[in-house]
Amino acid sequence: MDLIGRTLPPSLVCHDCDDEIDPRGGIYVVPDGDEVRPVCPEHAEGAHGVEIERRSRPENEDRWDEWYVITSVPDGG
Predict the structure, then answer these.
(1) What is the DSSP string of 8-64?
(2) CA-CA 20 to 30 A from 59: which of 13, 68, 75, 76?
(3) What are the phi and psi torsion angles at 76 (to 5°)?
């Protein structure tokens, strides 16, 4: 499953327990349509390990408002 380019919510919190997730070094995500939901390591069973990068939308160049998947490793959990 190709996750590269998919977006994440601006706030990185675990979808299952609402813990904040530190994006440094990669995170775990679960696909959900065209987006992916972040999950913490404790809830990563069946998740994918990815690296993400924050980008701004063209109409809002001054604000970094979306996370994008830039690399993906299947079955990270």
Answers:
(1) E-SS-B-TTT--B---TT-EEEEEETTEEEEE-GGG-TT-EEEEEEEE--GGGTTS-
(2) 13
(3) -65, -25
Q: Which residues contact 72 (CB under 8 A, 6 or more apart)?
A: 1, 2, 3, 4, 48, 49, 50
Q: Which amino acid is at 66?
A: E
Nearest to 75 by CA among 43, 46, 42, 36: 46
pLDDT at 28: 95
Cα 46 to Cα 7: distance, rounded to the nearest angstrom: 19
Average pLDDT per 10 consecutive residues for the chain, totaling 77 residues = 84 92 92 88 93 78 74 65
Prediction pTM value: 0.79
The tokens describing 25, both together, are: 């070094």
